[in-house]
Amino acid sequence: MSYDLEFVMIKPDAVQRGLVGEIVQRFEKTGMKLLAMKFLIPSIEQAKKHYAVHEGRPFYEGLLKYITSGPVVAMVWEGINPVQHVRNIVGATNPLEADPGTIRRDFAMTIGRNLVHAADSLENAKYEMSIYFSDEEIFSYKKIDEEWVYEE
Ligand code: UDP
Ligand code: MG
């Protein structure tokens, strides 16, 4: 089975704070399929491509500094409506406005250190994963619980 793809990144603050396992587990437990995962420090070129849409905004320079400041975990998850599922798990951009039970509400204090990135559309997910992964690094495989996660 093949569904849609979402791009997610565990940001440097979450790595530093020891939240990688907790965050990955929240996505993993939904039944979504992990297709790619890479531990890397984003280059300034990658960061500029990733956040091109925010160029010129007051927080842009700080955002580039933040995202390039240390190792991150870049991931590709596959599922039905993965963008909505992932963004529901991540929560609102500002942790103050995020729902209880979301990553940002449970673990973050401020909008500028909100732990995780998730693409906001399938199109942007495709663009963002191409910044961090080659096609060969995004795997295709059968996961044994698929028939229990999805109706046939
Ligand atoms: N950001 C910030 N201040 C703001 C708005 C955004 O520092 O006022 C940062 C924050 O890290 C956010 C990222 O810029 O996650 C991208 O902003 P966007 O509105 O796309 O939020 P997201 O899609 O991450 O929820
Ligand atoms: Mg965004």
Protein described:
The protein is of the alpha+beta class and 152 residues long. The chain has one domain: Alpha-Beta Plaits. Helix content is 38%, strand content 17%. It has eight helices and four strands; from the N terminus they run E-H-H-E-H-H-E-H-H-E-H-H. The protein has helices spanning 12-16, 20-28, 44-50, 60-67, 82-90, 103-107, 122-132, 146-149; strands spanning 4-10, 33-40, 72-79, 116-118. The protein has a four-stranded antiparallel β-sheet. The chain is globular and about 45 Å long. The mean pLDDT is 97. The protein binds uridine-5'-diphosphate and magnesium ion (MG). Residues 54, 59, 63, 93, 111-112, 114, 117, 120 line the site of uridine-5'-diphosphate.
Note the topology.
Layout: E1 4-10, H1 12-16, H2 20-28, E2 33-40, H3 44-50, H4 60-67, E3 72-79, H5 82-90, H6 103-107, E4 116-118, H7 122-132, H8 146-149
Antiparallel strand pairs: 1-3, 1-4, 2-3
The protein binds uridine-5'-diphosphate (UDP) and magnesium ion.
